[in-house]
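Tutorial, part two.
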Amino acid sequence: MLFNSVVFLKFFAAFLLLYLLARQSLRARNCLIIAAGYLFYGWWDYRFLCLLFASSVLDYSVGLGIERSQTQRRRRLWLCLSLAGNLGMLGFFKYYGFFVDSMVALLAQFDIPAQPRTLRLVLPVGISFYTFQTMSYALDVYRRQIAPTRSFVNFLAYVAFFPQLVAGPIGRASHLLPQFERSRLITRQMLAEGVWLMLWGMFKKVVLADNLAPLVDLAYGHPLGSGPLVALGTIAFGFQIYGDFSGYSDIGRGAAKLLGFDLMLNFNLPYLATSVREFWRRWHISLSSWLRDYLYISLGGNRRGPWRTRLNLLLTMLLGGLWHGAAWNFVLWGAWHGLGLLAHRWWSGHRAATGSQPGRPATVAGRVAAWLLTMLFVFYGWLLFRANSFALIAAQTAALGNFACPVWIGSYLINLLAFTLPLVAMQVWQAKTGNLLVPLTLPPWARYGLQGALLVCILLFWEKESTPFIYFQF
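Running the prediction step on this input gives:
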């Protein structure tokens, strides 16, 4: 079920009514959340509900098993069961075809014929998100950072919570699970924040991202290898994927607010970053912090010397790239950002060694230069991310050196500016005030006027056939 669909609006309105009527019973509310989550997920394909349930049962049982274990060996065995089950399920459905096809291509380079057993597997929507969420619960219990829940109902609700079920944010048990175990008070402030986040998120998806998609497709499918077209198309994709994914996160966070929940912030003005490291502290925060806490630190982090630190960082980003999809361009994108983080780490160490301040540049000119370099790096990374083959990556990269322009490039630029400037203006306002919810500080007449304008734009650009969110494929 898509957030940007009439079906979801009807579903959410009906659920909200039942949820408010059940305010006297926490268990009834959690049962409603489970039923709604399974309906929301099963709307896409009911056959894959068994995977969602299996992942929930597995890690609920693992949590209790770890708590009951008297020896460290048994605790590790329970944790290995969680990792094997979740990663096995993820690997089978998401990466089986990728690794088989890659092996066949490799053998073909040595003229070795191969006839692999192929399976027509459908990638279950959101599997990367809910498996990482349940695994983090098992890892937190193993590390004794949280106590396991004894309520299966609460745990099922935590996993099946539909505002963040299929595209995040990836919830942490330490933050989200306790909210299912206590009564929830929905305040006027939460209602105001929820409505704003849902409207702004829908605007970013329906008005910004969906209208930039044709511009991106044109640039990446046009036979003319034009540098300006590739550059503008890549900028369009950077804004498309940001509007699409952060829009989903905002809608999810807004819906959760209306139900009395607080989901973690997933985006914090990432295109204002002045370093690659800062970009990853602002972009897809729930994934980047997950990779840091459960992969990078588990590999040893920075505790085993500089060379091992570099290797751990590069491996983390390579696997982070592969998490996004079973294709080599995602691995290359992860490697690109891994190398960028290594370069930033070296530069910070060099500045510290020479007595310079290792943080943000001190001067305005320095900050502008750092921002420009960071954005050039990030947006070339989006070229790697968007191009679906090495051949297209090579062609688009080579085209950047060709400055010939199509006659219609001016119209292309006007369309790009028309759909991105509202977002840029809002982000500058948010950055200057240091408040992502700054529109809620406006006088009532201005706040309602702004929300009304967003609603009108959404209704004007709403497509009859709802466009799926980009991150559903991951």
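The chain has a mean pLDDT of 87. In part three we will examine how such features are distributed along the chain.
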